[in-house]
Design goal:
- Belongs to the D-isomer specific 2-hydroxyacid dehydrogenase family.
- It holds the Pfam family 2-Hacid_dh_C.
- This is D-glycerate dehydrogenase.
- It comes from Halalkalibacter oceani.
- The protein is α/β, with parallel strands linked by helices.
- The protein has 2 domains: 116 residues, 3-Layer(aba) Sandwich (Rossmann fold); 182 residues, 3-Layer(aba) Sandwich (Rossmann fold), CATH 3.40.50.720.
- The chain is built from 12 helices and 12 strands.
- The strands form 2 sheets. The protein has a 7-stranded parallel beta sheet with strand order 8-7-6-9-10-11-12, with helices on both faces.
- The structure holds (2R)-2,3-dihydroxypropanoic acid (DGY).
- The site of (2R)-2,3-dihydroxypropanoic acid (DGY) has 7 residues, from loops.
Amino acid sequence: MKIVFTRKIPTELVEPLKEKYDIFMWDRENEPMPYERLLQEMKDADAVFTNVADRIDKQLIEQSPSLKVISTMAVGYDNIDMEAATARGIAVGHTPGVLTEATADLTFTLLVATSRRIVEGMDVIRRNEWQSWGPFLLTGQSLYKATIGIIGMGRIGQGVARRAKGFDMNILYHNRSRKPEAEAELGAVYCSIEELLRQSDYVVLLAPSTPETKNMISHEQFEMMKKTAVFINTSRGTNVDEEALYQALKEEKIFAAGLDVFETEPISNDHPLLTLHNVIALPHIGSANVETRMKMATLAIENIEKGLAGERLTHIVND
Ligand code: DGY
Protein backbone atom coordinates (compact mmCIF):
# COMPACT_ATOMS: atom_id res chain seq x y z
CA MET A 1 0.00 0.00 0.00
CA LYS A 2 1.18 3.51 -0.79
CA ILE A 3 1.18 6.55 1.51
CA VAL A 4 1.77 10.03 0.09
CA PHE A 5 3.31 12.62 2.43
CA THR A 6 2.73 16.11 1.03
CA ARG A 7 5.57 17.54 3.14
CA LYS A 8 8.93 16.42 4.38
CA ILE A 9 8.64 15.35 8.00
CA PRO A 10 11.37 13.98 10.32
CA THR A 11 12.97 10.76 9.08
CA GLU A 12 12.54 9.03 12.43
CA LEU A 13 8.76 9.21 11.97
CA VAL A 14 8.72 7.92 8.41
CA GLU A 15 11.54 5.33 8.44
CA PRO A 16 9.63 2.64 10.41
CA LEU A 17 6.76 2.85 7.90
CA LYS A 18 9.02 1.85 5.00
CA GLU A 19 9.02 -1.78 6.13
CA LYS A 20 5.27 -2.01 5.56
CA TYR A 21 4.37 0.61 2.99
CA ASP A 22 5.50 2.20 -0.20
CA ILE A 23 6.22 5.82 0.79
CA PHE A 24 6.24 8.92 -1.39
CA MET A 25 7.38 12.00 0.51
CA TRP A 26 7.56 15.50 -1.03
CA ASP A 27 11.11 16.65 -0.32
CA ARG A 28 10.36 20.22 0.90
CA GLU A 29 9.45 21.10 4.45
CA ASN A 30 8.10 24.60 3.91
CA GLU A 31 6.99 24.54 0.29
CA PRO A 32 3.71 22.97 -0.76
CA MET A 33 3.56 20.09 -3.17
CA PRO A 34 2.18 21.45 -6.45
CA TYR A 35 -1.42 20.35 -7.01
CA GLU A 36 -0.64 18.71 -10.37
CA ARG A 37 2.15 16.65 -8.82
CA LEU A 38 -0.12 15.64 -5.96
CA LEU A 39 -2.78 14.50 -8.45
CA GLN A 40 -0.17 12.36 -10.17
CA GLU A 41 1.11 10.74 -6.95
CA MET A 42 -2.42 10.11 -5.69
CA LYS A 43 -3.37 7.92 -8.68
CA ASP A 44 -2.22 4.79 -6.84
CA ALA A 45 -2.20 6.05 -3.24
CA ASP A 46 -4.04 4.34 -0.39
CA ALA A 47 -3.52 7.16 2.11
CA VAL A 48 -2.40 10.77 2.17
CA PHE A 49 -0.70 12.63 5.01
CA THR A 50 -1.73 16.22 4.44
CA ASN A 51 -1.88 19.64 6.13
CA VAL A 52 -3.89 22.88 6.08
CA ALA A 53 -2.06 24.20 3.01
CA ASP A 54 -3.05 21.39 0.63
CA ARG A 55 -6.23 21.51 -1.42
CA ILE A 56 -7.84 18.08 -1.05
CA ASP A 57 -10.80 18.74 -3.33
CA LYS A 58 -13.40 16.71 -5.19
CA GLN A 59 -11.26 16.33 -8.31
CA LEU A 60 -8.32 14.99 -6.31
CA ILE A 61 -10.53 12.59 -4.37
CA GLU A 62 -12.22 11.37 -7.57
CA GLN A 63 -8.88 10.80 -9.25
CA SER A 64 -7.51 8.72 -6.34
CA PRO A 65 -9.31 5.40 -6.89
CA SER A 66 -7.57 3.43 -4.12
CA LEU A 67 -7.68 6.18 -1.48
CA LYS A 68 -8.88 4.95 1.93
CA VAL A 69 -7.53 7.50 4.42
CA ILE A 70 -6.99 11.28 4.36
CA SER A 71 -5.05 12.24 7.47
CA THR A 72 -4.38 15.89 8.19
CA MET A 73 -1.72 17.11 10.60
CA ALA A 74 -4.13 19.71 12.00
CA VAL A 75 -7.32 20.02 13.97
CA GLY A 76 -9.04 22.05 11.21
CA TYR A 77 -10.04 20.21 8.02
CA ASP A 78 -11.65 22.98 5.97
CA ASN A 79 -9.15 22.31 3.14
CA ILE A 80 -10.69 18.86 2.60
CA ASP A 81 -13.89 18.27 0.61
CA MET A 82 -15.63 16.29 3.34
CA GLU A 83 -18.69 15.57 1.25
CA ALA A 84 -16.66 14.00 -1.56
CA ALA A 85 -14.51 12.00 0.89
CA THR A 86 -17.49 10.72 2.88
CA ALA A 87 -19.43 9.81 -0.29
CA ARG A 88 -16.50 7.59 -1.31
CA GLY A 89 -16.24 6.04 2.18
CA ILE A 90 -12.79 7.57 2.75
CA ALA A 91 -11.94 8.05 6.43
CA VAL A 92 -10.74 11.56 7.31
CA GLY A 93 -8.53 11.88 10.39
CA HIS A 94 -7.26 14.94 12.25
CA THR A 95 -5.21 15.75 15.35
CA PRO A 96 -7.26 17.48 18.06
CA GLY A 97 -6.13 17.58 21.68
CA VAL A 98 -2.36 17.51 21.20
CA LEU A 99 -2.20 21.10 19.90
CA THR A 100 -4.53 22.74 22.42
CA GLU A 101 -1.92 24.17 24.79
CA ALA A 102 0.50 25.33 22.08
CA THR A 103 -2.27 27.16 20.23
CA ALA A 104 -3.61 28.69 23.45
CA ASP A 105 -0.04 29.84 24.26
CA LEU A 106 0.35 31.51 20.87
CA THR A 107 -3.10 33.11 21.09
CA PHE A 108 -2.27 34.61 24.47
CA THR A 109 1.19 35.64 23.24
CA LEU A 110 -0.44 37.57 20.39
CA LEU A 111 -2.86 39.16 22.84
CA VAL A 112 -0.05 40.41 25.09
CA ALA A 113 2.23 41.44 22.22
CA THR A 114 -0.55 43.33 20.43
CA SER A 115 -1.92 45.13 23.48
CA ARG A 116 1.55 46.23 24.63
CA ARG A 117 2.82 47.07 21.12
CA ILE A 118 5.83 44.77 21.40
CA VAL A 119 6.70 44.63 17.69
CA GLU A 120 6.34 48.41 17.29
CA GLY A 121 8.73 48.83 20.24
CA MET A 122 11.37 46.64 18.58
CA ASP A 123 10.90 48.55 15.31
CA VAL A 124 11.50 51.89 17.07
CA ILE A 125 14.86 50.61 18.30
CA ARG A 126 15.76 49.04 14.94
CA ARG A 127 15.03 52.33 13.16
CA ASN A 128 17.11 54.22 15.73
CA GLU A 129 14.08 56.35 16.68
CA TRP A 130 14.30 55.89 20.46
CA GLN A 131 15.30 59.33 21.68
CA SER A 132 14.31 59.17 25.34
CA TRP A 133 11.93 57.64 27.86
CA GLY A 134 8.56 59.24 27.06
CA PRO A 135 5.57 59.56 29.40
CA PHE A 136 3.25 58.15 26.74
CA LEU A 137 5.74 56.45 24.44
CA LEU A 138 4.19 53.26 22.96
CA THR A 139 1.42 53.12 25.53
CA GLY A 140 -0.88 50.16 25.05
CA GLN A 141 -3.90 48.64 26.79
CA SER A 142 -4.13 46.99 30.22
CA LEU A 143 -4.52 43.27 30.57
CA TYR A 144 -4.93 42.88 34.31
CA LYS A 145 -8.64 42.61 35.22
CA ALA A 146 -9.64 43.50 31.64
CA THR A 147 -12.52 41.67 29.94
CA ILE A 148 -11.76 38.98 27.39
CA GLY A 149 -14.47 37.71 25.03
CA ILE A 150 -13.80 34.31 23.49
CA ILE A 151 -15.82 33.31 20.43
CA GLY A 152 -15.55 29.52 20.14
CA MET A 153 -15.14 27.93 23.56
CA GLY A 154 -13.76 24.54 22.51
CA ARG A 155 -10.54 23.07 23.89
CA ILE A 156 -8.36 25.96 22.68
CA GLY A 157 -10.84 28.61 23.82
CA GLN A 158 -10.85 27.07 27.29
CA GLY A 159 -7.03 26.98 27.25
CA VAL A 160 -7.00 30.71 26.49
CA ALA A 161 -9.54 31.33 29.27
CA ARG A 162 -7.30 29.48 31.74
CA ARG A 163 -4.40 31.75 30.81
CA ALA A 164 -6.67 34.81 31.09
CA LYS A 165 -7.60 33.76 34.61
CA GLY A 166 -3.94 34.19 35.57
CA PHE A 167 -4.31 37.88 34.63
CA ASP A 168 -7.50 38.14 36.71
CA MET A 169 -9.49 38.87 33.56
CA ASN A 170 -13.28 38.71 33.34
CA ILE A 171 -14.12 35.98 30.89
CA LEU A 172 -17.06 36.17 28.49
CA TYR A 173 -17.68 33.57 25.83
CA HIS A 174 -19.93 32.70 22.96
CA ASN A 175 -20.28 29.21 21.57
CA ARG A 176 -22.83 27.09 19.69
CA SER A 177 -23.67 25.42 23.01
CA ARG A 178 -23.13 26.41 26.65
CA LYS A 179 -19.99 25.03 28.32
CA PRO A 180 -20.93 24.31 31.95
CA GLU A 181 -17.40 23.04 32.73
CA ALA A 182 -15.85 26.38 31.64
CA GLU A 183 -18.45 28.30 33.60
CA ALA A 184 -17.78 26.25 36.76
CA GLU A 185 -13.98 26.00 36.49
CA LEU A 186 -13.17 29.43 35.06
CA GLY A 187 -16.14 31.59 35.94
CA ALA A 188 -16.69 32.16 32.20
CA VAL A 189 -19.96 33.92 31.44
CA TYR A 190 -21.98 32.94 28.37
CA CYS A 191 -23.39 35.79 26.29
CA SER A 192 -24.58 36.65 22.79
CA ILE A 193 -21.94 37.66 20.23
CA GLU A 194 -23.31 41.24 20.24
CA GLU A 195 -23.00 41.55 24.00
CA LEU A 196 -19.52 40.01 23.90
CA LEU A 197 -18.35 42.44 21.22
CA ARG A 198 -19.70 45.46 23.12
CA GLN A 199 -18.23 44.51 26.49
CA SER A 200 -14.86 42.98 25.66
CA ASP A 201 -11.48 44.68 25.81
CA TYR A 202 -10.07 41.66 23.98
CA VAL A 203 -12.05 39.78 21.35
CA VAL A 204 -10.53 36.39 20.58
CA LEU A 205 -11.83 34.46 17.59
CA LEU A 206 -11.46 30.69 17.75
CA ALA A 207 -14.42 29.49 15.69
CA PRO A 208 -13.97 26.73 13.10
CA SER A 209 -14.23 27.60 9.43
CA THR A 210 -17.67 26.59 8.09
CA PRO A 211 -20.09 28.15 5.60
CA GLU A 212 -21.90 29.68 8.64
CA THR A 213 -18.77 31.32 10.09
CA LYS A 214 -17.54 32.85 6.81
CA ASN A 215 -16.99 36.59 7.39
CA MET A 216 -18.75 36.33 10.74
CA ILE A 217 -16.71 39.34 11.88
CA SER A 218 -17.35 42.17 9.46
CA HIS A 219 -18.21 45.93 9.47
CA GLU A 220 -21.21 45.58 11.77
CA GLN A 221 -19.23 43.57 14.34
CA PHE A 222 -16.25 45.96 14.34
CA GLU A 223 -18.69 48.86 14.85
CA MET A 224 -19.90 47.16 18.04
CA MET A 225 -16.40 46.81 19.52
CA LYS A 226 -14.81 49.31 21.89
CA LYS A 227 -12.40 51.85 20.40
CA THR A 228 -9.78 50.39 22.73
CA ALA A 229 -10.51 46.77 21.77
CA VAL A 230 -7.80 44.37 20.65
CA PHE A 231 -8.93 41.73 18.14
CA ILE A 232 -7.13 38.38 17.92
CA ASN A 233 -7.71 35.72 15.27
CA THR A 234 -5.96 32.36 15.54
CA SER A 235 -8.77 30.33 13.94
CA ARG A 236 -9.18 30.75 10.18
CA GLY A 237 -8.83 33.85 8.01
CA THR A 238 -12.09 33.14 6.21
CA ASN A 239 -13.99 33.89 9.44
CA VAL A 240 -13.11 37.60 9.11
CA ASP A 241 -13.91 40.18 6.44
CA GLU A 242 -10.36 41.48 5.94
CA GLU A 243 -11.49 44.64 4.17
CA ALA A 244 -13.71 45.51 7.16
CA LEU A 245 -10.85 44.71 9.54
CA TYR A 246 -8.51 46.98 7.58
CA GLN A 247 -10.99 49.85 7.75
CA ALA A 248 -11.65 49.36 11.46
CA LEU A 249 -7.93 49.48 12.21
CA LYS A 250 -7.14 52.32 9.81
CA GLU A 251 -9.99 54.48 11.13
CA GLU A 252 -9.09 53.51 14.72
CA LYS A 253 -12.48 52.03 15.42
CA ILE A 254 -10.54 49.38 17.33
CA PHE A 255 -7.07 49.64 18.90
CA ALA A 256 -5.16 46.79 17.26
CA ALA A 257 -5.27 43.28 15.81
CA GLY A 258 -3.12 40.18 16.26
CA LEU A 259 -3.50 37.73 13.39
CA ASP A 260 -2.07 34.26 12.82
CA VAL A 261 -4.38 33.37 9.93
CA PHE A 262 -5.51 35.05 6.71
CA GLU A 263 -8.11 34.68 4.02
CA THR A 264 -5.37 33.75 1.54
CA GLU A 265 -2.28 32.05 2.88
CA PRO A 266 0.50 32.91 2.54
CA ILE A 267 -0.63 36.56 2.81
CA SER A 268 1.10 38.68 0.20
CA ASN A 269 3.60 41.14 1.64
CA ASP A 270 1.82 44.03 -0.11
CA HIS A 271 -1.50 43.26 1.60
CA PRO A 272 -3.03 46.51 3.00
CA LEU A 273 -3.25 45.04 6.52
CA LEU A 274 0.54 44.83 6.65
CA THR A 275 0.91 48.58 6.10
CA LEU A 276 -0.74 49.32 9.46
CA HIS A 277 1.26 49.97 12.63
CA ASN A 278 -1.44 48.40 14.82
CA VAL A 279 -1.30 44.90 13.31
CA ILE A 280 0.85 41.99 14.34
CA ALA A 281 0.81 39.28 11.69
CA LEU A 282 2.24 35.78 11.99
CA PRO A 283 2.52 32.99 9.38
CA HIS A 284 -0.02 30.50 10.80
CA ILE A 285 2.20 29.19 13.60
CA GLY A 286 -0.44 28.62 16.29
CA SER A 287 0.66 25.08 17.10
CA ALA A 288 4.31 25.52 16.18
CA ASN A 289 6.41 24.22 19.01
CA VAL A 290 8.61 21.20 18.35
CA GLU A 291 6.95 18.91 20.89
CA THR A 292 3.45 19.67 19.60
CA ARG A 293 4.31 19.32 15.92
CA MET A 294 5.95 15.94 16.64
CA LYS A 295 2.81 14.82 18.47
CA MET A 296 0.59 16.04 15.62
CA ALA A 297 2.67 14.19 13.01
CA THR A 298 2.74 11.02 15.14
CA LEU A 299 -1.03 11.12 15.61
CA ALA A 300 -1.62 11.75 11.90
CA ILE A 301 0.50 8.67 11.11
CA GLU A 302 -1.38 6.64 13.72
CA ASN A 303 -4.65 7.62 12.01
CA ILE A 304 -3.29 6.38 8.67
CA GLU A 305 -2.02 3.08 10.05
CA LYS A 306 -5.31 2.37 11.79
CA GLY A 307 -7.30 3.25 8.68
CA LEU A 308 -5.16 1.06 6.43
CA ALA A 309 -5.52 -1.81 8.90
CA GLY A 310 -9.30 -1.46 8.63
CA GLU A 311 -9.59 -0.10 12.18
CA ARG A 312 -11.35 3.04 13.43
CA LEU A 313 -9.01 6.06 13.31
CA THR A 314 -7.96 7.47 16.70
CA HIS A 315 -9.49 10.82 15.71
CA ILE A 316 -11.95 10.53 12.86
CA VAL A 317 -13.92 13.46 11.45
CA ASN A 318 -16.51 11.60 9.33
CA ASP A 319 -17.66 8.87 11.69
C1 DGY B 1 -4.91 23.46 12.83
O1 DGY B 1 -4.50 22.50 13.49
O2 DGY B 1 -6.02 23.47 12.29
C2 DGY B 1 -3.99 24.62 12.72
O3 DGY B 1 -4.54 25.68 12.08
C3 DGY B 1 -2.66 24.19 12.10
O4 DGY B 1 -1.81 23.98 13.19
